Amino acid sequence: GGAARRGEAAPLPRMKRRDFSLEQLREFDGARNPRILLAVNGKVFDVTKGSKFYGPEGPYGIFAGRDASRGLATFCLDKDALRDEYDDLSDLNAVQMESVREWEMQFKEKYDYVGRLLKPGEEPSEYTDEEDTKDHTKQE
Predict the structure, then answer these.
(1) For the sheet containing 37-40, what is the strand order?
(2) What is the pLDDT of residue 110?
(3) For the Cytochrome b5 heme-binding domain, which residue ranges apply (predicted)?
C-alpha cells in the first residue's frame, strides 16, 4: 500500500445474507474483491474490517476467501491447513473442535455473520430482507 492512500476507503455496505459454496467464497479474498470473507465451523463471516490481519498482506491472509476452521483449530497458518474440497473436520479431536467453536464465537462478536458455508449439493437458504433488518437491531 502506497503512503498516498492514507485516507481509508469508505467501509463497504453491509453484505446481504447469503450462503456460499467453497467456490463462491473463494472470490472474496481481498485481492479480487475488496470484501474479505472467511468461514469458521460452517459459518461465513465478513472480516473486511480486519483486513490488516486477513488482507493479502496480513498474517492470516491465507484464510481470506477460505474455510479457516482447520487452520485455526490446529494453529497452522500454511497451505496444509486449507482443503480445496469441503472439509467436514471429522478427523479433528475434541480439543481442536472446541478451539474451532471458540474461534466461531470470537468471529461472531467481532464481525458480521453473513450466512452458511454450503456442503456439496446443499441448497442455499432464501434470506428475506426482514431477517436482515431483524439482525441489525439485535446487534446494536
Answers:
(1) 37-40, 43-46, 112-116
(2) 97
(3) 20-118
Q: What is the largest CA-CA distance in the chain?
A: 48
Beta-sheet pairing, 112-116 with 43-46: antiparallel
Where b means 16+ CB within 10 Å and e means fewer, 84-96 reads eebbebeebeeeb
Q: Does 54 score more than 50 pLDDT?
A: yes
List the Cα angle 20/10/32 in 5-degree steps. Answer: 40
And the C-alpha cell for 89? 473436520
User: C-alpha distances in angstroms, 57 versus 16, 50, 53, 62, 63?
Assistant: 26, 12, 8, 9, 12
Q: How far apart are CA 53 and CA 126, in angstroms?
A: 31
pTM above 0.70, yes or no: yes
What residue has cell string 467453536? 101
pLDDT digits (tens, 9 = 90+) for 120-140: 999 999 998 765 555 555 544
